[in-house]
Amino acid sequence: MIFRKVGEEDMTSRKCMAMLLAGGAGKRLGILTRDMAKPAVPFGGKFRIIDFTLSNCTNSGIYAVGVLTQYQPLILNSHIGTGIPWDLDRKNGGVSILPPYVLKGEKGKWYKGTANAIFQNIYFIERYNPEYVLVISGDHIYKMDYSLMMEFHEEKGADVTIAVIEVPWGEASRFGIMNTGENGSVIEFEEKPSKPRSNMASMGVYIFCWSTLKKYLYKDDDNSKSSNDFGKDIIPMMLKEKCRMFAYPFDGYWKDVGTIESLWEANMDLLSDDPALDLYDRNWRIYSVNSNLPPHFMGASAHVHRSMVNEGCMIFGTIHHSVLFTGVHVGEGSDIRDSIIMSNVKIGRNVKIKKAIIGEGAIIEDNCQIVSDAKKPEIILLKGDITIPVNSVVKSTIVSIRDLQVSGEEQNMA
Amino acid sequence: MKNVMGIINVSRRDELLRDLTSLRCIASVPFGGRYRLIDFVLSSMVNSGIYNVGVFTLNKYRSLMDHLGFGKEWDLNRKRDGLFILPPPIHYPLGYYRGDLQNFFSHIDYFHRSKQEYVIITGSNIVCNINFNEAFRFHQETEADITVFYKEIEREEEVFAQCRRIEVGENSRVLDMEDKPGRLNSNKVLIEIFIMKKSLFIKIIEDSNKLEYANLIRDGLIRNMNRLNMYGFHYTGYLGIINSVTNYFKHSMDLLKREVWQELFYKPGLIYTKVKDEPPTKYLDLARVTNSLISNGCLIEGRVENSILSRGVKVHQGAYIKNSIVMQRDVIGKNAIIENTILDKEVFVSEGKELIGDTKQPLLMSKKSMI
Asked: Touching check for A399 and chain B: CB below 8 Å?
């Protein structure tokens, strides 16, 4: 019995399981996603983006989570491990990492689209035989109680419920927009409409009745022209065939950190007096892998304001309006502003950094300047595990050490 | 170190730390912002490759058990061996409990069942970071019956005034050991860490039980001074033996010296503790924090100087904390002044209040006080 159904006796927690899409390449995040999938991108001084959805599952009482990986899964896999930080190491359920696989007698298939990724794991879902399947994406930062959405879904007797959030009208054409009737039922779904008729955007959070979803997954797979995507194919098809589809309005913080700018902004958002995303709520903790480092040390010459600093840091310089991950060292006389410094970055003395994202493990030696001189400065991105030698001047993004030598020569010529 | 088991002996005198131990045993007294005292010996054992650790508790062990859990953080949630928390049997008649050997005797089966041939027995109030492999090698090379840890101090320090001393000869033989501090004029401070064969340890426990002896150091070691080969192993790293509020305060303040925290927290291994999943600490515009150790989850709007903040502390605008230890979830109200003070967990200091202790005699506010 390979496809034994597990945990049948425990109906309450097994009523709903989650399928978390974590294969996104996050192309617009540049070198940040060169070695890791977008859900693994570090955020908020401690977390990786996927921690938010995984913690939402735990906090909502969903203890069976399948994580679909595809693009650069190494860091993601080691981060998730057996799910201990999210209390998802369970006998029944827990977290399962689901990469694409090869079927007997066939060639291996990559996950072609979001729907195809679920389709290829129908047997995995069948083992739990849930009533409902929650489909979420590991790319988004938000805190949401899925159990409330479940209640809504049941109340409405829906086939599918889609969480929606109000976005500014001006940005509505960047999203999948839901046009709803009076009772909250979805009448129309438009993917990135040029003239949006509503500003309720899909958050990429769906609850399906499993039996219905399964039917449409098979149907979608039969259609060779389909791109096998939830937003582009499954949802429009279900609408066309008059499935009961409802929009669940969500009014908290939700962000798709698709670009360097939005990632930087989302980090800076945390530094405001009363951030919309409250990380300090003890009733809704965001769990992550803990590095087990000592408290951070503020030296006698440290000046730190409007910033977040994690464990294991050693600060002797000035930090203003920045986010520091674990184990960052900042030497005396250094000045860091409007920046995100990822784990284990070592910064020497008298270094100036402004509006930059410094990748994990980078070493910046004494007297370096990482400041853009453009009038409207762009965010400078520095690849991780790179060493910037003493007295270097960096004015733009550095992908490899060769970039630096080029700009260094320019510097000498000037 | 597969062949060595670790014993942490928690059953010591709680009353020494006054209000800090009114609800907890010494082993679970918070230290260094995010740790508890037991973390130091326990992490040292794990980092040295010891995977069978028994923690012998005596009383007020709820917070200790909560802290240790199944030993996950120390990688001790194992099928084979792992962490064993061994509370005392309930049937001691009142006042009959006389010492740790009695407690070991009541769990003698644990020693018999464990497969390891050697034991390392430690106290639970020792602040240190030790690689036991070196000491174990020393134990085997000297063919000692018992290896005793000690630290040589250069000058008489107040913090070690209440600690036992030993005399060690040139060949590292232990010549003398005192039961109560004061008799020996030696600069060698006894650390309550011993290595011996498990069979010898069992024999000491069983013999003592017959003779109604009860104390490991007095009856097990000192009485056997002439019969057993005892060698002294010199531990050279940072050492604190926490046995009073003043020396707790002094050792805590030592952590603010760069050379101390760099060594104690990192070398030879990391110190593990229960994780709390707190977000990073947030500093607001008026924060001014210098020469301090700050744990995660704090929100700081005021001034902090030469102090240690545990996880989840709130320091409001205009508040000023100086030379103090502020524990988990304390709230320091606007313009409050805290100096030379130890605030136990969940203390609330309201707006404008002043708490000023003496450098020698810090003020101690007990858990959940409202000021």
From this structure: no
